[in-house]
Design brief:
The chain is an alpha/beta fold. Helix content is 35%, strand content 22%.
Length: 386
Amino acid sequence: MAPLAWGLIGGGEGSQIGPAHRLGARLDGLFRLEAGALDHRAEAGRAYGRRLGIAEDRAYGDWREMLEGERARADRVELVTVATPNSTHHEIARAFLAAGFHVLCEKPMTMTVEEGEDLVRLARDTGRILAVNYGYTGYPLVRHMRAMVARGDLGAVRLAVAEFAHGHHADAADMDNPRVRWRYDPAQAGVSAQFADCGIHALHMASFVTGQEVERLSADTVACVPGRALEDDAQVNLRFDGGAVGRLWTSSVALGRQHGLTLQVFGERGGLAWAQERPDQLRWTPLGGRTQTIERGEAGLSPEHDRACRVTVGHAEGMPLAFANLYADLAEAIAARREGRAPDPAADLLPSAEDGLRSMAAVHAVAESGAREGAWVDARPPMFRS
Ligand code: NAI
């Protein structure tokens, strides 16, 4: 298949996540960056777009200009990635979906549950793909964990323990740093800081691997750094719809922890443990047996692992390659639609608009429970409660 034309919104020079998208989208030659509105400063965005090789007339200064420019073209971009700050996701994703583009939206997908439900409906109505960038689900061994659970290696899952705890906002003297301050300001960040930023990755990964969705939760949310209006640490207890119990810790004051995303899954017949900072090894302990290390790249694991794995065993892969797996899934989903066939089941793993909505409902449930001293609350979006 010829490379698909791809557009990027946000992800400008110096942004945190832009480079990982550009690496991920290009890695397999499946997408080519043809259009962009990369920066909130129009001229800086245009100039950076041109430096990245985007043609003069498609290096836009603003996403609305890009929408108008692209929708009129016969060779318009097929997929648009939205990598702007959170509060802009709903408006931008909505506009591009409504105009018939496929969209990959950064997390959190929206700021409110209502906006999330709106995007789920719109994606269903338009028949366009709306995926959410839970990019860590692209790691081959995360996909293998999911396959092991699905094929019954663990038996029924009893317990999932997920963490996303780092220490990058631990410095109280950083209170006035503009890159940190907005994250704890409800006017800009919404009802949650750390859970909405990082906790939802851990929660989504627990659901992705166990195949179970959260129904109820109880949260202890705390601002450890005095003066913060939103939490920088949360401990969340969860109950999943398949009967599993969940424990989730997320923090931004855990000094010494760097990225800090981990998942452990304990079933009737075995336990799994994975850490994002050592993504190429998975620990597996069968009931009554020894703990084993499963290496990414080994033969005979699962079709999901094999499709996502690119480099031979013993050579490190990494986060941009995990993102590339989501882009490969997107290319496969687009090709399958064009050809009127079902996608390869090993590629049919894209985090969906429904997943983005479930995360948003969980964010609001955590905020509500935290404000009510840990009361148990319904964590499901209203549209999925019946
Ligand atoms: P950032 O602040 O480093 O960069 C944001 C970029 O968007 C900048 O280049 C800025 O100029 C541009 N921008 C802002 N408003 C814009 C607009 N209206 N139109 C076009 N460009 C605009 O932010 P960062 O950390 O890259 O985060 C962006 C998004 O990605 C956030 O939603 C964040 O939650 C998400 N993210 C996701 C990660 C993941 O693992 N999936 C990891 C890090 C961030």
